[in-house]
Amino acid sequence: MKIAFLLIPAFLFLFMTNRDDDRTNTFNDNTADSVLQRMSDKLNSLNNISYELKRELNYSSENYHNETKWTVYYDLQSEDKIIGFKYQIDDETGKQVFNGTEEFQLDRKLKTIIIIDQPDQQTFSNTSALYNSIITLKNVLPLIIGDKTVAKSVGDTIINNTSYNLITLNLNKRRIKNLGKGFDAMTTKSNFIYKIIIDKKNDLPFEVLQVNDLNNDFIKTNFTNINTDNSSPSEFSWYYSTYTDEYKPAVQKELPQLISVGAVAPEWTLPVYNKAENISLGNLKGKVVLLDFWIKNCGPCIKSIPDLNALRDRFKDKKFEIIGINSYDAKEDVSWFCNKHQPNYKIVLQGKAVAEKYSVNSFPTVVLINKEGKVVFSGEGLNKSEMEKMIEKAL
C-alpha cells in the first residue's frame, strides 16, 4: 500500500506537467508554419506598405557581385486584375510606376519616359525590385504553408541586439517566382534554400536570403524603414501625363537583324587571350569557322562550353576552327572565366565592334562560316547535334 501511495502522486504530477506543456504549446505555438501564418495574416491585413529595399547579388562561383537600392510604395487595395496591387518604385536612376492600367518608367539622366499601356505578367516578372520582395512573400506564403513537401524549420537570430525569428525553407529543385505566384521547376544540381528573418514584434519580414546547398552564391533582399500606415502619394503622381513636360518619350531603337545566311562574313582582327598574338578571319580562310559570341555573366554561354569543346574534339583533325569572341569583358574577367570553365578553343578579346558588325544582339550567338568565307548559319544559342551536321556538310 505504501508503494501505491507513493506512485499515485508521481503519476499525477507527470500528468499535470504534460498537460501544462500542451497548453503552453497551444497558446505559444512557434512552429515554422505558425510563424509563417502570422506573417501571412499580417501582410494580408495591410492596405499599403512602403520600405527601403536593398538587394545584393553575390555569385562568387561566377565572380559576380552587385548591389541595388530602391524606395518602394505598394497600394495593396488596387482592383487591378493583373497583379493585384499598384506601385511606385524609385532609385537614383529613375522611377517606375504601375497605376493598375499602364506601367511607365522614367529615366532621370536621359529625361525620357517609356510607357507600356498593356502590361502583362512578363512585364512584372522582369521588375528587379519585385524579386524576393515583400509582395513575393505575400503571394507565396499560403502555398508554402500548405505544401507538406517543403522542409521547414524555425529558430532565433540576433541582429543589433534584437531577437528575430529565422525560418529556413528547402524547396529542393524549385525556385519562387518573381511575384510569388507559384514556383519554377529547375534543373540545377543544387537545391533552393530560403532563409526568412521576421521581426517578432510586428510579424513583418526583415530579410530574405536565397542560397543553395552546393556553393556560396546568394541573393539577399533586405527591408528597412517599413511603414504600413502611409499617406498615399498624390493622385497625379500615378499618371504619366504628369511627367511629360519634363520627360520625353524614349525612342525605341529597332535592333538590327543578325547577319544572314549567304552573306560574306565581315573581316576582323583581334588579340588572342593568353597569347602575344592577333588572329584575323583572313588567317582562317580555307577552314570552316564557328564563331561563338559570348560574355562572362551569361548562364547559357557557360552551358554551351562543353558542347563547343566536344565539337572542337570531334573535328580537330579537319579544317575546322572555333573562335570564342568575348564582346566587352576585361581581360582579368576573361581569365577567371577561362580558368574555371576551360574552353579548349581559341578565345579572342575586345570583340564589341565585331559583334556590332555581325549585328549580335544577345549572348551566346553562333555564326558558322564556310571555307569560302560565307555565312551558312547564324542564330542564338547552340544546338550541338544540328551544328555537328552543318559542320560536316560544310567540310
Reading side by side through the largest sheet, how are the strands ordered? 7-8-11-12-13-1-2-3-4-5-6-14
SSE class: alpha+beta
How many domain units?
2
> In percent, how helical is the residue content?
25-40%
Identify the CATH class of the largest domain. Answer: Mainly Beta
Mean pLDDT: 91
Summed up, the helix count is: 8
The total of beta strands comes to 21
- For this structure, the CATH topology of the largest domain is outer membrane lipoprotein receptor (LolB), chain A
SSE string, helices as H and strands as E:
HHEEEEEEHHEEEEEEEEEEEHEHEHEEH
Radius of gyration, in Å, reads 28 Å
Large-scale geometry: globular
Biggest β-sheet: count, sense, barrel? Answer: 12 strands, mixed
CATH superfamily label of the largest domain: Lipoprotein localisation LolA/LolB/LppX
Q: Which architecture of the largest domain per CATH?
A: Clam
Task: Provide a compact summary of the structure.
With 395 residues, this protein is an alpha+beta fold.
